[in-house]
Amino acid sequence: MPRQRTWTPPGHRPRSGAGGLRKICALAWTLAAALTATACKTGPDLSTDYGQTARENYELAIGEFEDRDWDEAVAYADFVRIRFPFSRYAVEAELLVARAEFAQGNYLTSQDGFKQFYKLHPTHKHVLNGWCAYMAAVSAYMNAPEGFFLLPAHYMRDQAQLQEALVELAYFFDHYAGSPLEPNAIKLRDEIKRRLLQHELYVARFYLDREAPEAAIGRLESAHKNYPGIGLDAEVLFLLGLTYLRMDEIELARSTFTELQSQHPRHHHGRQAKLYLTYIYKNFGAADPNRKRPDRSPPRPISPPRPKIKDDEPRKPKPSAALSSPSGAL
User: Fold this and answer.
1) Burial class (CB in 10 A: 0-12, 13-18, 19+), 117
2) pTM value?
3) How far is it, in rounded angstroms, from Cα 239 to Cα 201?
């Protein structure tokens, strides 16, 4: 079969396949290098991503914060703090970082941020009006455990963050009494104490269900002393009276039920207190301040018995050298 020939214009030399392949490979390497350079970018381009002054970057941070882009807001604010540490915008950027952390739900970080801010900048307007101290307490409160259907109730879990929130509120009341935020701080304090009281009642019921009234009485006495006026006073007094009665503290139970009946006569625990007072009078008589009380002192530890020497084991005789004097005479 004859070999077919392709026609080429005069003066035109055909290109070899190897040269075209080299150009394709060079183009591929160029694109790969460009993509690699883009992928390996480790930081922002200071000429395009950030402004030239502290004010420009702070305004960019404010814009991202208003757009709820918290990560970008923190990035711009941190840039202001690090690049322009002596600018007045650096102080505002520091506060903006704490606000952004709070908005993201990073309450522990925001609590530290607000605390550090009011310690380092005591003359700032948001420190003078108590807002930073109040937000530190709110951050601690928000970091406390919440109820979730897959987890135990909030009053069954650790309450350390609520205790820390009370400490932050105590600082607020000591340094910023009369602040416009004081009514909000009082409401927050009452809510924290209500949740702490629920925890104390839960622990007291836990001990009572396991026949350990001596362990429950400390929780109830502390709750009655530290959390009055929260709205659970009737329940606290009722459990306290029952626990005193189970511990044979007759006069303490009588006085507790009397206080419950007089302070909460319409409450259902107040009506129950009247029945218990009748029971105490019928079984133990009238009030007697000299009535003998049970011993509530803590138990003393008992040392373990010493090991006994068996009689069938022969005792080793003492060596004669120990019984004799250095001269050989007894």
Assistant:
1) buried
2) 0.70
3) 9
